[in-house]
Specification:
This protein is of the alpha+beta class. It has helices spanning about 25-30, 35-40, 50-65, 110-120; strands spanning about 10, 15-20, 70-75, 80-90, 95-100. The protein has a single domain, classed as Gcn5-related N-acetyltransferase (GNAT) (Aminopeptidase, 3-Layer(aba) Sandwich), CATH 3.40.630.30. Strands 1-2-3-4-5 form a five-stranded antiparallel sheet, sandwiched between helices.
């Protein structure tokens, strides 16, 4: 499989998607500990911050490896995580998932973020 290179930052009309940092841990915990937010995630709602910084570092390493990409959803000029969008690429397929702090539901942010990632995926010659 060919290594894929993803943009570190994706800007949309209202959002900025950027690579995760260990310092995002508190903000990620704020939405990741909500059972409604984590309902369809592949992990249970977080009950503590134990291991969260390490998890964010591991996501950054996977980004560098070129197969799993996670971006933190923020607002331009306000570098606080309100959610995340992820994209896994395997062979000629891509899977996109997202989480968003419940406070921001119903405003089209995940549609906008996932659409921006999908637009990037469509530029990849390896993905059908």
């Amino acid at each position: 499989m060919t290594k894929v290179t993803a943009p570190d930052i994706i800007d949309t009309t209202r959002l900025r998607l950027r690579r995760p940092k260990a310092t995002d841990a508190e903000a990620v915990f704020a939405y990741g500990s909500d059972p409604q937010v984590a309902r369809y995630a592949d992990w249970a709602a977080r009950t503590s911050m134990d291991g969260l910084e390490e998890s964010l570092r591991a996501r950054a390493a996977a980004f560098d490896a070129g197969t799993d990409f996670n971006w933190i959803i923020t607002f331009p000029g306000k570098d606080c995580a309100i959610g995340g969008v992820a994209c896994s690429i395997e062979d000629d397929a891509a899977e996109i998932g997202f989480l968003l702090h419940r406070r921001y539901w119903g405003r089209g942010y995940t549609t906008e973020a996932a659409g921006a990632v999908l637009a990037w995926v469509r530029t990849l010659p390896s993905v059908a």
